[in-house]
Design a protein that fits this description.
Strand 12, helix 9 and strand 13 form a beta-alpha-beta unit. The chain is of the alpha/beta class. It is globular, with a radius of gyration of 22 Å. The chain folds into 2 domains: 179 residues, 3-Layer(aba) Sandwich (Rossmann fold); 188 residues, RecF/RecN/SMC, N-terminal domain (Glutathione S-transferase Yfyf (Class Pi), Chain A, domain 2), CATH 1.20.1050.90. The chain contains 9 helices and 15 strands. 40% of the residues lie in helices and 25% in strands. The chain has a 6-stranded antiparallel beta sheet with strand order 2-1-4-5-6-7, with helices on one face. Strands 8-12-13-3-14-15 form a 6-stranded mixed beta sheet, with helices on both faces. Helix 4 crosses helix 5 and helix 4 packs parallel to helix 6. The structure holds adenosine-5'-triphosphate and magnesium ion (MG).
Length: 374
C-alpha cells in the first residue's frame, strides 16, 4: 500500500497544500507547533474517517473557514486509490472513493490501512485499560467492518442503557425496560469479545517474535485477553449471549445503584507479561517500552496477514522516545516494505545515520517544503 500524495484545504493550519510523498520513508521535521502532527492526522483521517486527537471535526477546520477537504492519492495491488473527504462546520461530510460518492464513513474501512504510533502508545503497557482497548479497536476495525459495526452499535446501546439505568435509579423509568437493551448489548458485546480474543491470539506470536528480537531472545512476551465477561467459563453449548445476559442479571442491582453498566467489552483489558511477570506492575520502564513497541509493530504483520498488503506506518514523535537500539530495530523492520511517515523536531536527534532512500520535509507554520532527498 502506497500513499503517493495528499492535498489539504483548510485543514488545521494548512490553507492549501499538496505534498508528494516518498514511497519508502518520509521524515517531517520542524519546530514545535508548526503542523507536523497535523499531516499525520490528516493521513489517519483518510484511514478511519476520524482524527486520532479529537472527536470534533469542527476543530480540524482552519480557523475562520467553514469546511476542510483532504484528498489522498494512493496505490494498492488492486490499482489506484483516490479518497476525497470534505467536512463542513455544520457536520455534513462528503466522501468519495475513486470518484464514487459513499454514504457512510464505514465505507472507508480497508481502503487504506495504517498503524499509528504516537507518544501515548508508549503507555500501552503502563497506562490504564482504555489505552489497550483503543489499541485493539482501532486495529481490528480496520480489517473487519463487522467488528466496526458491532463496536459502534455496542457503544450506542451502552450509552442509552446507562441513561436508562440512571432513570430507573431515580424512579423515572421501569426496570422492565432494561431487558430490550440487554439483549442488544449482549449480541454486539459477544461479537466484540470473540473477535478481540481471536485477534490477540493472532497478535501474540507476532509480538513475541519482535520482542525476542529486540531483547535478543532473553525475554518472552505473553499477551492474554482479560474479558470482564468470560465466555469460556461455561460449557461449549451455552451461547455467548446467554452468558453475557446472565452476568447482566447478576449485576443488575449494583448497576442500578451506580447508574452504569459494570461488565462488558468496555471494561476489558489485555494482560501483558514477560515470562510470568506482569509488566504493567513490575516491569522496568525499558521493559514497558519494549512491550509497547512490540505490540505496535505486531500490528503491521497482522494487517499484512489479514489484508494481503502492508499498511502505512505513521510514527508521530516516537523516535525521540526510543533509545538508539530500539530505533534502529524499528527502522530495520520497516525498511523496504512499509511506507513510513515520521515526525520529529530535528533529523539529527532521531536518525543516527543519514537516511538514504527517503525524503525529508520541513514544516513551518502551515507551509511544507522538501529539504533533502536521499
Ligand atoms: N483548526 C485550526 N486552525 C488553524 N490552526 C490550527 C488549528 N488547529 C491547530 N492549529 C495549529 O496547528 C499547530 C499545531 O500543529 P501540530 O500539532 O501539527 O504541531 P507539531 O508540529 O506536531 O508540534 P509538536 O512538535 O509540538 O508536536 C498549532 O500552531 C495550532 O495553533
Ligand atoms: Mg506533533
Amino acid at each position: 500500500m502506497l500513499v503517493n500524495g495528499i492535498s489539504l484545504s483548510n485543514y488545521r493550519n494548512y490553507r492549501d497544500i499538496q505534498i508528494d510523498f516518498h514511497p519508502m520513508l518520509n521524515i517531517i521535521t520542524g519546530r514545535n507547533a508548526q503542523g507536523k502532527t497535523n499531516i499525520l492526522e490528516a493521513l489517519f483521517y483518510t484511514v478511519t474517517g476520524k482524527s486520532h486527537r479529537t472527536g470534533l471535526d469542527k476543530e480540524l477546520i482552519l480557523w475562520g473557514e467553514n469546511f476542510f477537504r483532504i484528498t489522498l492519492f494512493g496505490e494498492k495491488f488492486s490499482g489506484r486509490i483516490k479518497i476525497e473527504i470534505s467536512t463542513r462546520a455544520d457536520g455534513k461530510k462528503i466522501l468519495k472513493v475513486n470518484g464514487q460518492p459513499r454514504k457512510k464513513l464505514s465505507e472507508l474501512i480497508g481502503v487504506i490501512n495504517a498503524v499509528l504510533f504516537s507518544p501515548e502508545d508508549m503507555m500501552l503497557v503502563k497506562g490504564g485499560p482504555s489505552v489497550r482497548r483503543r489499541y485493539l479497536d482501532i486495529e481490528i476495525s480496520q480489517v473487519s467492518p463487522y467488528y466496526c459495526h458491532s463496536l459502534s452499535n455496542y457503544n450506542r446501546i451502552l450509552s442509552q442503557r446507562n441513561s436508562l439505568l440512571k432513570a430507573v435509579r431515580e424512579g423515572e423509568e421501569s426496570e422492565d425496560l432494561l431487558s430490550v437493551w440487554d439483549m442488544q448489548l449482549a449480541e454486539y458485546g459477544v461479537n466484540i469479545i470473540k473477535k478481540r480474543k481471536e485477534v490477540i491470539q493472532k497478535l501474540t506470536p507476532i509480538a513475541r517474535k519482535i520482542h525476542a528480537n529486540i531483547t535478543e531472545g532473553n525475554e518472552e512476551l505473553n499477551l492474554t485477553y482479560l474479558p470482564s465477561i468470560n465466555l469460556d467459563i461455561e460449557e461449549a453449548e451455552v451461547k455467548g449471549e446467554d452468558i453475557f445476559l446472565k452476568k447482566l442479571k447478576e449485576n443488575r442491582k449494583m448497576e442500578i445503584i451506580k447508574g452504569i453498566t459494570i461488565s462488558g467489552p468496555h471494561r476489558d483489558d489485555i494482560d501483558i507479561r514477560i515470562g510470568k511477570i506482569n509488566v504493567k506492575s513490575f516491569g522496568s520502564q525499558g521493559q514497558q517500552r519494549t512491550g509497547a513497541l512490540s505490540m505496535k509493530l505486531s500490528e503491521i504483520e497482522f494487517m499484512k496477514n489479514e489484508t494481503g498488503e502492508y499498511p502505512i506506518l505513521l510514527l508521530d514523535d516516537v523516535m525521540s522516545e526510543l533509545d538508539t537500539n530500539r530505533r534502529k530495530y524499528l527502522l530495520r523492520v520497516v525498511k523496504g516494505k512499509v511506507q513510513t511517515f515520521v515526525t520529529s523536531t530535528g533529523v539529527k536527534d532521531v536518525f543516527d545515520t543519514v537516511m538514504d532512500n527517503s525524503r525529508i520535509f520541513e514544516v513551518e507554520s502551515g507551509n511544507i517544503n522538501i529539504i533533502q532527498e536521499g
